[in-house]
Amino acid sequence: MTKSQELLKEIEELRTKHFQRVDEDRKELEREDVTIERREKILKEGKKETEECDKEIKDRMLRDLSSWALDPQGFFYRVNGELKVITVDIGTTGKYTLDMINFENHPKSKYRNEIVDAFINEIKQNPQDWKIEEEDNAIHDKVSWGGCFVVKHKSGRKHYRPFPLGYKKGHNLFASFSPEEWTEIENALNYQKQTDLEQLDSYKNWTKEQLISEINRLKAENEELKNNQTLTSSERQERLQKNQEKLEKFQSFLDKDALQPVNNNSFVPFLISGAVLAAVIGLVSFLVIKNLRKSKKD
């Protein structure tokens, strides 16, 4: 067994033990005769145990960093896919499985931040081994995640970050790397993503139906933004403004298409056929009149 496999086994044992403890606590908390004092003690001890378990797992992950990466949702996944799936009983609501590591999946989670910071430092120290690619339909774990930035190591290891709201067709408010973390990675790799103008210019060849569909999508997105309480007022206004600029640009494409002058060459066959028809009518008329005059003389 390699050192990496030993560390993974320890992580799996820690997780299994932790979830067994969680299940035991849940069952006791569901009892009708549990006192308030006992309930508070269970919750307090459970929080402490979770903290200790997370720290132990985090320490082992840092000792084997190259075996881990960040998926589009912000979960830590095992690069070679060998992480054991743990099924957790959650009472009357059923069961769910855990095959990834998740430290609250939030940028304020200290253990999550320690590992992500280690990922970023790894990239900064060896930028020649990494590159950023844009995938309009990224596939991870046999699932399509839509448009994603993919930070790819020469070994094939990949970190993911879904396109954020306002970039191409991105719709994620937050996932995996935070904006600040992502900026660090872009700077480390001297990555220059497309500007909004370059993106919009790429839509010029869209059909009328595609443009209308995108306009309707942006309008619906604006309505969602107006009701999104997770954004600050300035963030909401900034994104609404970007969408409005795109709407105006798309509308200009539609208007330009509607006002497109008709190609005069398309009238050439009609003019030629019209001229021929007129000549034929004129010739027939001439012959009819000539015959009439001849018959009168006779």
Give an overview in words.
The protein has about 300 residues and is mainly alpha-helical. It has two domains: about 190 residues, no CATH class; about 70 residues. About 55% of the residues lie in helices and about 10% in strands. The protein contains eight helices and nine strands. The strands form four sheets. A three-stranded antiparallel β-sheet has the order 5-8-9, with no helix packed on it. α1 packs antiparallel against α2. The radius of gyration is 33 Å and the shape is globular. About 5% of the residues have low confidence.
Please compute the radius of gyration using only Cα atoms: 33 Å
Low-confidence stretches: 259-273, 286-290
| Computed structural class | mainly alpha
Q: Largest sheet, described in full?
A: 3 strands, antiparallel
Briefly characterize the structure:
The chain has 298 residues and is mainly alpha-helical. 54% of the residues lie in helices and 12% in strands.
Keywords:
2 domains; 298 residues; two-stranded antiparallel sheet; 3-stranded antiparallel β-sheet; mainly alpha; single chain; 8 helices
Q: What secondary-structure arrangement, pairings included, does this model have?
A:
Layout: H1 3-29, H2 36-62, E1 68-70, E2 76-78, E3 86-89, E4 95-98, H3 110-125, E5 130-135, E6 139-140, E7 143-144, E8 148-153, E9 158-162, H4 179-188, H5 196-201, H6 208-226, H7 233-258, H8 268-297
Antiparallel strand pairs: 1-2, 3-4, 5-8, 6-7, 8-9
